[in-house]
Design a protein that fits this description.
The structure is a single chain. The protein has one domain (41-180): Tetracycline Repressor, domain 2, CATH 1.10.357. The chain is built from nine helices and no strands. It has helices spanning 2-7, 14-21, 25-31, 35-54, 64-80, 91-102, 104-130, 140-161, 164-180.
């Protein structure tokens, strides 16, 4: 997971993996019959970590708009700033950009996660609007697109500059926007 976060899938060699894991080639292929099988295992583990970090505490919040805000804070503080597991930044963004042209079937798996993320954000914002937490003159689809795109943009920028202050500024701008359109 760390190697894929730092170097991407294509640039991570089996030798890199063997050195990092201290495993033998036979041992690795005993567990994974191909590098692609390893990709899916890493993707699954990364998704579990992402869910644990980004969704932490959301079930304890009643207001949907506050859930979105907490989600954004978690995304920034608990996921993107997780240097231990993702030293290269958001593994999903890194891999999706790298694999889009080279391995479209793998990129498709990553895109499914982005589709689900956007749907989750949209669902929470729709609940917030239904509960009267978002003004009627703000179309939920446009707000969803802005939040989703802002998150991805923050991930890309943070992956490049590793600036906590820039990341904080970007995510705080999204949070401030959500608070501004709330009643």
């Amino acid at each position: 997971m760390k190697l894929f976060s730092l170097k991407g899938f294509l640039s991570t060699s089996i030798t890199d993996i063997l050195e990092k894991t201290d495993a033998s080639k036979g041992g690795l292929y005993n567990h994974f019959n191909s590098k692609e099988a390893l990709f899916f295992a890493v993707l699954s583990e990364s998704r579990k970590l992402w869910r644990g970090k980004c969704l932490a505490g959301l079930d304890q919040i009643e207001k949907p708009i506050e859930k979105v805000i907490k989600f954004l804070e978690n995304y920034r503080d608990r996921y993107l700033k997780d240097y231990e597991n993702f030293p290269g930044g958001c593994i999903f963004v890194t891999l999706s950009v790298e694999l889009a042209d080279q391995r479209p079937q793998l990129a498709h798996e990553l895109n499914e996660g982005f589709v689900r993320l956007k749907a989750r954000i949209n669902r929470l914002l729709a609940q917030a609007k239904e509960a009267g937490e978002i003004r009627d003159d703000f179309p939920i689809e446009a707000v969803t697109e802005m939040v989703f795109s802002g998150m991805l943009g923050a991930s890309v920028t943070y992956g490049i500059d590793k600036s906590n202050s820039n990341l904080d500024h970007t995510i705080n701008s999204l949070i401030n926007y959500l608070r501004a359109i709330s009643d």
